[in-house]
Amino acid sequence: MIVLRKHLPRRTFLKGLGVTVALPWLDAMVPAFAAPAESKAPLRLLFGYVPNGMMIEDWKPKTAGKNYEFTRILKPLEPFREDMLVLTGLAHRNGEIAPGDHAAASATYLTGVAPKRTTGADVKLGISVDQVAANAIGSNTRFPSLELGCEAAPSVGSCDGGFGCAYVNNLSWRNDTTPVAPETNPRVVFERLYGGLDTDPDPKVRERLTENRKSMLDYVNSQTQRLAGTLGPSDRHKIDEYLTSLRDIEKRIMRVEAENQLTPQIEKPSGVPSGFVEHARLMNDLLLVALQSDMTRIATLMYARESSSRAYPELGFADAHHPLTHHRNREDMMEKVRKIECHQMDQFAHFVTKLNATKEGDGSLLDHSMLVYGSAMSDPNRHTHEDVPCVVLGRGGGLKPGRHIVYPETPQTNLWLTLLERMGVQAEKLGDSTGKLDQLTDI
Fold first, then answer.
1. What confidence category does residue 196 fall into, taking pLDDT thresholds of 50, 70 and 90?
2. What is the C-alpha separation between 204 and 328, in angstroms, rounded?
3. What is the pTM of this model?
4. Average pLDDT for the chain
5. Residue 50 to residues 85, 117, 170, 296, 389: CA-CA distances in angstroms?
6. pLDDT tens, 118-138?
C-alpha cells in the first residue's frame, strides 16, 4: 500500500522574529498506521472558580438523576445537559476551622487543607490538585499548568483585615508555602504563550517595535503559506480558524490598550480591560487556544478573587459583590446577588460553548476535558462550607455526564482524587479526602 499523506510531528511550530506559534491538532499529525494511543487526543483537567459562595436555592436542582430541571443560575449551561454532571452534597469542612472565612474558602478549594494563620506575610497550606497533576504530567506540554484570573490582587493589608491576602488571591499552591499566582493581564498571557517583539532587551528597539507593531501572525505568514500548501482541505481549514482566533485575540488586546491610553484615570495595566465581560472572554479565549495547541493540559481560571467587591455596572446597579452577599435576607440585595451569579455563569458558558465548537480528533475539546466550575462556599450570607456548588463538564477520562448526582456529605477532595485518577495520576490522599467518588463513570 502506498501512503501519500504528509505526516507532521505533534510538536510542529510556526516561527518568526521573537514569535513561536504552536499548531492545533491536525489530521496530518496522526500517522497513517497509528496505534490507538497515537491517534488519541490528550485529556485536560480545568477548574473555573467564582467567589463569595452561591445562592444555593437558585443553583441546586430539586431532583436527582437524568431528568432534573435546570435552575436559574445553571440555565446558561442547559445546552450542555448531556455533557454535564451536577454534583451536590460535597463539602469543604476545613474551611470552617480556619480563621477568615473567605481566605479559608479559596485556600481549601483545591487543597482541602485549612490555612494557618502565621506571623508576618508567611502562609502555610498544602499542594493543590492542579499542581499534583502538573507535577505528574506537566512535562508533556510547554507549560505544566496555566493559572489565569480576571481580577488583580489588592494591596497587602486590604483584604480580610490584613490576614490571608495570599489565600484569597490564589487557588493554586505548588507546596505548603508557595502559591502560584494567577495572571490577570491578557497581554502578558498572550506574549507568554506566543512570544512577542516587546521582549527585546534594548528599550529603544522595544519602543520602535511598539510604535510599528504588526500582528504576531505577520512574522510567520510565509511559513503558514508553505505549510498550508502541503496539507489537505480539512487541515487547512483548521489552521485558518485557529490563526483567525489568534488574530482576533490580538486585536481585542490592542483595542483595550488603546482605550486605556485614552482613559488614564483607569488604574489598570495597559492590557487589562476595564469591564468584566471583555476581561473574562479574553481569558476564556486565551485558555482555549492554549488547550487547542496543547501548550498545557492543566489550568485554573478565577473569574474573580475570593471576597471580591467587584461591581458589575453592566447589570444596572453599582453595588459591590461581597457586601451584597451579606444580604440579611433582604430580597432586593438577594436579587442582585443572583444576577451577578448568573452573569458569571454566562461567561463560563461562553467558554464551554467554544470548547464544544472546537473540533479535535474524534470529538471536541469539551469531549476531551474534565472541566469543573464552582465555589468553596454555599450560602454566602452565612459562609457555609457544606453542599458547595459544583458542576463537571466533558467526557474526558470516561466520565458519563447528563445527570445530577447527590452524595451524602462528602469532602470535595474526593472528587479531586477521582479526577486525578482519570488523568492517570495516582494519589492516595489530598487534604481532607477520604476516598474516591463512585457513579461518575457509571450509568
1. low
2. 57
3. 0.91
4. 88
5. 18, 23, 12, 22, 10
6. 555 566 788 999 999 999 999
Domain ranges of the chain: 41-184+272-422
Nearest Cα residue to 68 out of 372, 405, 408: 405
The amino acid present at 243, given as its one-letter code, is L
37-41, 47-51, 55-59, 229-233: lowest mean pLDDT where?
37-41
Cell of 89: 452534597
Question: What is the rounded CA–CA span in Å between residue 366 and residue 396?
Answer: 8
Calculate Rg over the CA atoms of the chain. Answer: 22
In contact, 304 and 50? CB cutoff 8 Å: yes
Amino acid making up residue 399: L
166 confidence band (pLDDT: 50, 70, 90): confident
Has residue 47 got a pLDDT over 80?
yes
In tens, the pLDDT along 265-311 reads 555 667 899 999 999 999 999 999 999 999 999 999 999 999 899 99
CB atoms within 10 A of CB 422: 17
The architecture in CATH of the region 41-184+272-422 reads 3-Layer(aba) Sandwich (3.40)
* Rounded CA separation 194/186 (Å): 12
**Which grid coordinates are listed for 264?**
488614564
Q: What is the 3-state secondary structure (H, E, C) of the chain?
A: CCCCCCCCCCCCEEEECCEEEECCCCHHHCCCCCCCCCCCCCCEEEEEECCCCCCHHHCCCCCCECCCCCCCCCHHHHHHHHHEEEEEEEECHHHHCCCCHHHHHHHHHCCCCCCCCCCCCCCCCCCCHHHHHHHHHHHHCCCCCEEEECCCCCCCCCCHHHCCHHHHHCCEECCCCCEECCECCHHHHHHHHHCCHHHCCCHHHHHHHHHCCCCHHHHHHHHHHHHHCCCCHHHHHHHHHHHHHHHHHHHHHHHHHHHHHHCCCCCCCCCCCCCHHHHHHHHHHHHHHHHHCCCCCEEEEECCCCCCCCECHHHCCCCEHHHHHCCCCCHHHHHHHHHHHHHHHHHHHHHHHHHHHCEECCEECCCCEEEEEECCCCCCCCCCCCCCCEEEECCHHHCCCCEEEEEEEEEHHHHHHHHHHHCCCCCCCCCCCCCCCCCCCCC
Question: Which residues pair with residue 405 across a beta bridge?
Answer: 87
- Shortest CA distance to 57 belongs to which of 289, 328, 352, 341? 341
Q: What is the pLDDT of residue 205?
A: 46
